[in-house]
Amino acid sequence: MDLAAPINSALKRVPAWPLYPLGAVPVVWILWQGLEGKLGVDPTKAIEHQLGLWGLWLLIAGLAITPLQRFAGIRLLKFRRAIGLLAFFYILAHLLVWLVLDVQIPSLIWADIVKRPYITIGMAAFLLMVPLALTSNNWSLRKLGAARWRRLHKLTYVLAPLAAIHFVMVVKGWQLEPIYYLACVVGLLALRLVPKRLRIFAAPPVRS
Ligand code: HEM
């Protein structure tokens, strides 16, 4: 019996587009709290941190979609583009807060990127996200062809660990929270190496 069938038939009726306005809610809430002075003594840092965290959560959510389909038969593929694009916009906002509110002085930007390894790694992760965000549309998929498009989007497997390592390096000492996220990313990537025939519920195989 396909235990995922009722979930999938409910999901079929849910369109993907509402994720975009819904995904904007946390950023509006974070900025609103900042303007209201509710983010403590260093609102810039708090905004930077929260946007970075949302970006990472969304990256992890995007990575979970293929294993969920492969092992549990739950089909969330139609939401993946919105989740990936939202992750990109959160990281872009995280980067802009760093540039505009944190560093501020243009001559210090490059120095900071080169001098601080956690910024170098964060920047590398962000730069790898750019081609993915730019090609997350039907036109690019058609132009590149499915095989090349899929190959390009495998950059996620590099950028997601870099993003999680960036968080591990940001915090002082060995804290558990970023390590959990790194383990999550590594675990979700490792699941892709498991033979495709292993599944919890019956479900057709999935590519990528
Ligand atoms: C995929 C890319 C990225 C992800 C997922 C990410 C995520 C995060 C997370 C989760 C934090 C820590 C939040 C906390 O402490 O609660 C953080 C902190 C930070 N990130 Fe990123 N980040 C990324 C890229 C970048 C880039 C491109 C820059 C700048 C070039 C950057 C600069 C910073 C800075 C300055 C901090 C705060 C450090 C401090 O507390 O002093 N990040 N990031």
UniProtKB/TrEMBL annotation:
Bilayer topology annotation: Multi-pass membrane protein
Source superkingdom: Bacteria
InterPro entries listed in its UniProt record: Fe3_Rdtase_TM_dom, MsrQ-like
Cofactor notes: Binds 1 heme b (iron(II)-protoporphyrin IX) group per subunit. Binds 1 FMN per subunit.
Residue stretches spanning the membrane: 14-32, 52-71, 83-101, 113-134, 155-172, 178-194
Any single GO CC term annotated in Swiss-Prot or TrEMBL for this entry: plasma membrane
Pfam families: Ferric_reduct
Cofactor: heme b; FMN
Keyword list, A-Z: Cell membrane, Electron transport, Flavoprotein, FMN, Heme, Iron, Membrane, Metal-binding, Transmembrane, Transmembrane helix, Transport
Annotated GO biological process: protein repair
Location in the cell: Cell membrane; Membrane
All residue ranges annotated as the Ferric oxidoreductase domain in the record: 51-163
Residues in the signal sequence: none
GO molecular function, one term: metal ion binding
Protein family membership: Belongs to the MsrQ family.
NCBIfam families, per the entry: PRK05419.1-5 (NF003833)
Known function: Part of the MsrPQ system that repairs oxidized periplasmic proteins containing methionine sulfoxide residues (Met-O), using respiratory chain electrons. Thus protects these proteins from oxidative-stress damage caused by reactive species of oxygen and chlorine generated by the host defense mechanisms. MsrPQ is essential for the maintenance of envelope integrity under bleach stress, rescuing a wide series of structurally unrelated periplasmic proteins from methionine oxidation.
Subunit-level organization: Heterodimer of a catalytic subunit (MsrP) and a heme-binding subunit (MsrQ).
Protein name: Protein-methionine-sulfoxide reductase heme-binding subunit MsrQ
The species this protein was found in: Aliiruegeria haliotis
